[in-house]
Specification:
alpha+beta; 4 helices
Length: 128
């Protein structure tokens, strides 16, 4: 579905439904429950994303956007990996973020992270 923002920017919003989700797990049910608690988020679509895809969640305005990304992918049974500032992966919540697919990014210096991610994706390496 194509849509546009107030400032004229355009984006593509995939629709994802409960009946096309992958295997329903305790984790996906929990994610759906939390999404409902966070304001009644409900996911509807007719198509599942491809097995291999890149999703850009930009521009995100708060840290809640990252939480929504994880909850949305988990709620439809998709495992995902996502990049986050490395400081978020320190105790006490670092272990949990890694468990749900976080990949640390050192933003204090150039490390060629985008190129590394492209190479891993091209080689079809699992990220976890």
């Amino acid at each position: 579905m194509r849509d546009s923002g107030r400032d004229g920017t355009r984006w593509y919003v995939p629709r994802v439904s409960g009946d096309t989700t992958k295997q329903k797990t305790t984790g996906s049910r929990l994610a759906r429950f939390v999404l409902r608690l966070m304001g009644g988020w409900k996911i509807e679509t007719t198509d599942m994303p491809p097995d291999r895809s890149v999703v850009l969640a930009v521009p995100h305005t708060t840290n809640v956007d990252g939480v929504l990304l994880v909850l949305l992918t988990r709620s439809i049974g998709l495992d995902s990996n996502w990049m986050v500032k490395d400081v978020w992966l320190k105790p006490p919540i670092g272990w949990l973020l890694r468990r749900v697919g976080a990949i640390p990014v050192n933003r204090r210096k150039a490390t060629g992270m985008v190129g590394q991610m492209v190479e891993r994706f091209d080689r079809n390496e699992p990220f976890q």
